[in-house]
Structure formats: C-alpha cells, structure tokens
Amino acid sequence: MSNSTKWILSITVVFALASVIAVMLFSEDETLVDELSIVPKENASPSTPPTAIPSNPSLLSKSKASSVTETMPPEDAAIFKAQITQVADMYSETAQYPIGSQPIRNPAEAYQPKAFEEANFTVPYPMQNGGTLEVNAALNKHQYFAGEDIQIRLQIKGNDSDAFIEPSAVVASSEKDLLSGITFVESATSTREFLATVRSDDISDDLPSPELLLKVTIDVDGETFFITQGFTLFQASAAVTGIGRSEVDDANLLIPVKIDVEEAGYYFLNAILEDEESAKPLVALQTEGRLKKGNKELRLLAHIQALKVGESEGPYTLRSIKLYRGAKEGEQFDVPGKSNKKSFPVQGFSFEQYSDVKHVDPLAKEREAFLRSLAK
After folding, report:
1. pTM exceeding the 0.90 threshold for the entire prediction
2. Which pLDDT belongs to residue 64?
3. How far, in Å, CA of 200 to CA of 205, rounded?
4. Comparing C-alpha atoms, which of 172, 198, 201, 193 is closest to residue 183?
5. Most CB atoms closer than 10 Å: which of 95, 110, 309, 352?
6. Is 183 in contact with 216 (CB distance < 8 Å)?
C-alpha cells in the first residue's frame, strides 16, 4: 500500500468500523436500516469512506449496544471497548474538519514513492555452492497507462563477481503470456544491475484484466532462478489537464481542477496540498462528482481551519493527484485517470481574507456519543 493514501484509509477505518457495528446491532430494525446512508454501488470507491453511521443516532437503543459486550469474556470485552474508544477518538479528530479537507499532521503519511520504490520485490535463493543469491526486481511505478514506458530494474547480489548472468522476462496476464523476448542490458554503473524498457503499446490491447505480471528468469552459471512483480495497465478514463484560478470562497480555498473526460461516469479526485517553499504537506483534499465526456471541472476545497494547522498561507503546490471513475455495474475495477503533470502551482491568500469559522457537522457529536456508548 502506498503511504500517500494512508490518510484516506485512516478516515475510512473510522466510518467502516462504525458501519459494521451499526449494521450488526440493528440490522433487524427496519426503521434504523432506512436511516443508514450508504454510498450507491456505482459511486463506491476506495477513496470514499462508507457513511453508514445512523443519521439519527437517537434511534439507537443503549440496551442493544451494551448487549454486545455482555456476551463476551471480560478480557475480550475490554479489548473491544478500547478499540471502540480509539475509533471514537479518531472520529472526534476528523470531524473537526470537512471530510474532503483533512490536515496532515504526520508528513510520512503523505510520502510520495520515488521511482522503483513502490513496485519492488526481493527474494533470497540458496545456491548449489552453498551461498545465497539475492534478487531484486523493481518497476519504476506500479500503475501504468496506455502509451507509457514500463521501466524494469533487476539487481543481483551474492554471486561470484565473474559469474555469467543472463536475465530475460515476459509480461503475462493470469491466463497467458502477452509479451515475450524482453531483454536486459547491464547498467552503466554496476555489473550486478540490469535494465530493460517495455513499451506498454506493445502489450496486447485486448487485456482480460488490468492486473498484469512481469515474470523474470535469471540464469547464473547454469542455475536458473525466477522472480515476479505485479503491475497494472489501464486506458485512462480521464486526464487532469490543469488548475484554474484559485480563490477564497468564504471559509475555503477553492481550487478548480480541469479534467478532460474520456469516459462519462462518477469520479473521485484526491490530492495533497503542500507548501510551495518548504514542500511540507498540509492538507489531504478529496471531492467527487458525476462528469460527462469532454472538458469538465471538479472543485477541491481546503478549509481555513485545516490550512491553519500547517500555518501556511501559500503559495502552494497541488501534487499526488489521484483520479478514478467508479466502477459501473458489471465492472470489476475502478478505472483510474491520469494527470498530465505531477504537480500544479496554487495561489495562496492571507488567512485574514477567509471567514475564520470552525467546521460544524450537526450530527458529529451525536455520532461520537453513539460510538462512546458502545465502549461503556
């Protein structure tokens, strides 16, 4: 999992666990089930936290909530209550800010993997001479789009310095080999490092699945070793082409994101707003909406209270841009879009120009109370 998405998943955990608890406790109560807000299947996405916390927590029966732990052994009940308390604390923290504008307190959570870091796999192999051969296969990234080059790096350690090494590779789906005859060349900096480049356009256009596998064979002085590395290849559903003029909109910094949509559908957009000068990640942004084909726009909103946590008035940089079209009925995967640039500059404004108001979710306190009631 990429660290740059952990901020999404941490919020998702809060809602998902609460959702499971709510449904588990009250699935037999038709009135309550009607009160649950569930994202439609077509709109569902890993970037959209479930919101199945009852919209009216006053409907919840405390006797039902307490019955969860009454049937547990004391030690299990204590663990359960501690976990629910932690969920309640996380929810209380995230509820202070809009779900689409969460401050980043730990920069490591917004780390952007470098080339050959994200898709990287190492395997040690015993050799006939008693030694160990360590093979590392890496791709410059994990997700590719049609038209991009797939860069492969193979590093080998542990063999004799004068050993004869000959690597080769094929690209395969779960059903068959798609592209064979991939050859490597020695790196200019090391005789233990081999490089290869594959044009994604050379891989079959008719893919049964976007999930593919690089299968590498290494011959070392007559011994043969194998290693694999997975990756995905998509036809982009849309492309982020630029950023419009940002402006202060009440308590938010409004950032219009220009999108060239190839496939109409329901889209999810995530990005990191960072300080331009220090490169400090400030706010995790997300938005969503239905887009028709053509040149369209989604708007990201950075709330003033989230911006003030990072103490930066800008200028900013928008980076780590992730765009997805939610899977339609019958589709197995969300279809990602691409960004024409890795980052875009965003104008900043003095905090004095914003409406300095706190974000208020009218149901947040009731939802938090519901979660804490489960831990009693």
Report:
1. no
2. 52
3. 9
4. 198
5. 110
6. no
